[in-house]
Amino acid sequence: MTVPADRGVPQDTDRAAVLVTVDELAADLRLSGTDPADGAPVLLDVRWALGQTDGQERYLAGHLPGAAYVDLETELAAPASPQAGRHPLPSAAQLQGAARRWGVRAGSRVVVYDAVGGTSAARAWWLLRYFGVKDVRLLDGGLDAWAARGLPLEVGEVVPERGDVVVRPGHLPVLDADEAAEVAADGVLLDARAAERYRGEVEPVDPRAGHVPGALSAPTTENLGADRTFLPTAALRERFAALGVRPGAGRPVGVYCGSGVTASHEVLALAAVGVTAALYTGSWSQWSADPSRPAATGARP
Questions:
Q1: Burial 135-166 (b: 16+ CB within 10 A, else e)
Q2: Model pTM greater than 0.85?
Q3: Are 110 and 133 in contact (CB under 8 A)?
Q4: Is the backbone of residue 199 left (phi > 0), alpha (psi -120 to 50) or beta?
Q5: How far from chain centre, in Å, is Cα 296?
Q6: pLDDT tens digits for 94-131?
Q7: What is the pLDDT of residues 15-30, one digit of tens each?
C-alpha cells in the first residue's frame, strides 16, 4: 500500500471529535440516561494494563453506570504470534461479534475509558474507528476523573441488549513492517514506548531491545498531564511540532509501540491536533521477532 501523507483536517473540531470530558459525558447521561435504546452512548470499560490480569475483577468492583466490560486480549486482538506480534488486529468477524455483545448498533455513539489515562481504551477507540464506527470518543481522564468529580459508580456486570452493528476494515491507515521502515526514512515514525525501551536499555517483553532505525522517541505518556488527562491542544501541537509533525505538512506520519496498543493513544493525540497518523499494527513485538530487521539503540534515531 502507499503510505498516505498527512494533509490535516479542520482543527476547530478535532479534539471534540475524539475526546469527551467527564462533565460533558455526565451531562449527556443526565439527559439520555444509560440505555443506548434511548439515545445514550454505549459505554465501554477497557480495564487493561501490561502485566495485569485482573481487569474484569476491577470492572466488577466499580464502573461507570451502564458500561460493558471489554477484554482487550480476547476481543481487541487476534492470537499473538512472532510473525504478527503480541496484539494483531482482530478479524472483522471477531470485532463485529464483540461489538454486538457490547451493545453497539448501527449509528451508536460510543465512549471508551479505562483507569490508565486512556492508554488501553484508545485501542478500542482506534479499532472501532478502523472498522467503520464513526462516533467513538475517549473519556478524557477515564475512571479517575469520573470518580474525582464524585460521580456514581456501578458494581457488577452489565449485559447490554445485543447490537446489530456491521463493521468493515480499512477506515484508518495502517502500516506493515516495510511501510514502517519507509516512513522512518521519508516521513516521521514515532515510537510511543517508554524512552528507556526506545534506547534499548530495558526490554521487558519483546525478543530484542532497541527501536526501528530512523524512528523518533515520543512516549505516549507525555501526551498527558499530571492528572492523566490530555494536555491542552496548544501543548500537544507544540509537543508534536518539536518532533517535526505539523498539520498539513504533507509528510507521512506513523506510530508504533510494543504491540500496537499504546500507539493508538498517540494516533488519537495526533488526531486531536489535526494530524492523520498511520498505526504500525505489528509494532516492535513483530519487528524485533524478525532477525532480518535491524535494531537501533541509544537516544538517536
A1: ebbbbbbbbbbbbeeeeeeeeeebebeebebe
A2: yes
A3: yes
A4: alpha
A5: 25
A6: 999 999 999 999 999 999 999 999 999 999 999 999 99
A7: 999 999 999 999 999 8
What residues does 216 pair with on adjacent strands?
190
Site of grid cell 501543548: 235
Query: Which residues are tagged catalytic?
Result: 257
CA distance 247 to 249: 6
Task: Tell me how far the alpha carbon of residue 257 is from its chain's centroid.
Answer: 11
Positive or negative CA dihedral for 90, 91, 93, 95?
Answer: positive
Residues 6+ apart with CB under 8 A from 290: 82, 177
Q: For residue 121, which amino acid is it? A: A
87 contacts 260 by C-beta, under 8 angstroms: yes
